[in-house]
Design goal:
201 residues; 2 domains; two-stranded antiparallel ribbon; mainly alpha; Serine Threonine Protein Phosphatase 5, Tetratricopeptide repeat
Length: 201
């Protein structure tokens, strides 16, 4: 898995709110400084690629930025090409899975995360993200199995409990969901407070 992807996860979360509509009569798109920053990095990566078309890390970096900016097709092309240039960059399967999930190619996303897991069997996020795709496909049994497996690998990662709690709610298992939300909060996932407030009181 790309080590720098974990470093960028807070920035990726920031990107969810970095490009939003300003309240105005014409509802024009407001591009925040964070979005502009990612666009600049994408342009830098493109310049590097133009100078050296075999610079694998530039494709991976551009893929991350394109994904943040919502260009999932472009991100997918970069991830797949990086993997073609260097098959050892197996973390690209994580990016491919995320890109395909965003493009609603759920079977493709499952295949990518499964490939990642087959190479890195202790990758808890691989299981968690695949679980999320199974959940979107309403394959709740497979999703629950993957979340439980991820927790077995890394029992101290609060977000997995939160995601599992959301699945349990969909499955109408409120008691189990609340247990998971409380575990997530105990492990430091503050966003679980909202789930507890709205579902467990």
């Amino acid at each position: 898995m790309r080590t720098f992807l974990l470093i960028l996860l807070p920035l990726i979360l920031l990107s969810v709110i970095s490009c939003k509509k300003r309240p105005s009569d014409n509802n024009t798109l407001y591009v925040s400084p964070a979005t502009a920053h990612f666009k600049a990095i994408e342009q830098d990566d493109t310049r590097v690629i133009n100078q050296n078309p075999k610079m694998v890390d530039a494709y991976i970096s551009r893929s991350i930025n394109r994904s943040i900016l919502g260009d999932y097709k472009g991100a997918l092309m970069d991830d797949e090409y990086a993997l073609k240039l260097d098959p050892k960059k197996t973390g690209c399967y994580f990016g491919i899975g995320q890109d395909k999930e965003a493009l609603k190619d759920y079977p493709g996303a499952i295949a990518a995360f499964t490939k990642l897991i087959s190479i890195h069997s202790n990758n808890d996020l691989g299981y968690s993200y695949r679980a999320g795709v199974y959940q979107k496909m309403h394959n709740y049994k497979a999703a629950l199995n993957d979340y439980n497996h991820a927790i077995t690998i890394n029992p101290d990662y609060g977000e997995t409990y939160k995601w599992k709690g959301e699945l349990e709610l969909e499955m109408k298992n409120r008691s189990e969901a609340c247990s998971d939300f409380n575990k997530a909060l105990k492990l430091g996932d503050k966003s679980a407070e909202f789930d507890i407030k709205n579902n467990c009181n």
